[in-house]
Amino acid sequence: MARASDPRRAQAAATWIVRRLRDAGHVAYFAGGCVRDGLLGLHPTDFDVATDAAPMRVKALFPRASEVGAAFGVMLVHVSGDVIAAEGLEKAGASVNVEVATFRSDGPYSDARRPDTIRFSDAQSDAERRDFTINALFLDPLDIPAPGEEGGPLSGDLRGRVIDFVGGVNDLRARVLRAVGDPDRRLKEDHLRALRAVRFESRLGFRLDEATAEAIRRHAGELRGVSRERIGEELRRMLAHPTRAEALGMLQELGLDAPVLGVNAKVPLVRVAGLPGDAGSTVAVCAWALDRMARAEQPWFSDQEARKVTSELRLALCLSNQESEDVDEVFRCVRGLLSRWEGGSVAVRKRLAGRKLCAMALEIVRATHGEVAGRIDGDLRALAGDGVGINPPIWVTGDDLIAAGFVPGPNFRRILDAVRDAQLEGRIGTKEAGMELAREMNV
Known about the structure:
Elements: E1 2-3, H1 7-23, E2 28-31, H2 33-39, E3 46-51, H3 55-61, E4 66-69, E5 74-79, H4 81-86, E6 96-102, E7 104-106, E8 118-120, H5 123-128, E9 138-140, E10 161-163, H6 168-174, E11 176-177, H7 183-189, H8 193-204, E12 207-208, H9 210-219, H10 228-239, H11 244-254, H12 257-261, H13 270-274, H14 281-293, H15 303-317, H16 321-339, H17 346-353, H18 358-368, H19 370-384, H20 398-403, H21 411-424, H22 431-441
Parallel strand pairs: 3-6, 11-12
Antiparallel strand pairs: 1-3, 2-3, 2-9, 4-5, 5-6, 7-8, 9-10
């Protein structure tokens, strides 16, 4: 793919490659997601090129190209800033790398992920081996149709002639997500396509074609055979997008949450739906887990439950150590905000508010306990303006106590906590006063 901070540079780099290939006698088009998003007016940032030139021919035409998947016909072409400038953009700017793939048809997929064999072919064969019709479109950026002429873009700034072998343009117009050809075959080739279908359907606001949906239901259990790394990556992309509630609702409807998390739970996704659009995948997965709990009398996880759920999520989604720690921390903060905030002392509230993921947890609380969250918001404003602050630098540490002659032991934590509480509540105003309080307690 070609990706740049300025999408115009990525498109210019890909256009230059298409022109160079065409001048050398080859067929070359934009392919895949950039065509889909461009025709929908979504301003794509990634541009791929597909061509009938074999990988080594691409290497001959672009000597600085590197092999990123030559066995599958994929090369990475380096396009300098000077070349991009010649496409009509300002000279300033970094170079861009563009994926160039040779048209191919695929053999059997015995591992339900990659084809056992491929054969370099033509554009139509390449389109017919892709997953969904809206992802199987090509666009010739060097052939600009006249206004109203067939083959022009649906909307947006992408210019060129659309090449459609599979009915993708009609599906774009109808806002339908449909598998290319036989949906059962497409899913058997790569079971992860079921999750990709959900992500595209929710992100684009499309309707899932019924034949494709039924095939996904039939093959839902086969998702268990997909690596947890791939499942986790696909789920992260869903959870990080503002349409996460729609995506997870479709997972439940199609029965895909069972192979992901062990059981199908058709529950209202109140917490997930209540998250702000820019919420990250960590807080979203926590909200999802709490929604799936569907327990009104105690809407949080105990310590033991949190550890169990975090462990299950770690295995199911291949969470990193840091992600697992963050998930567990969010669960703890949700429990604290709902069970300890109201009626808690100033120190208790400040300690909760000072936890690094408390703000994330508060967004989850807000979705189901709006009045409680509103009171917490007011309390936070008051605590932040009390002259002490919510999380001021710690005055007295364990090193300070040792330097003052205190002997480390069970009493250490009690003394440090008491001094910190006194600082947070404004009962002491200096480090010296904190040390004096510590001495008084060390008797």
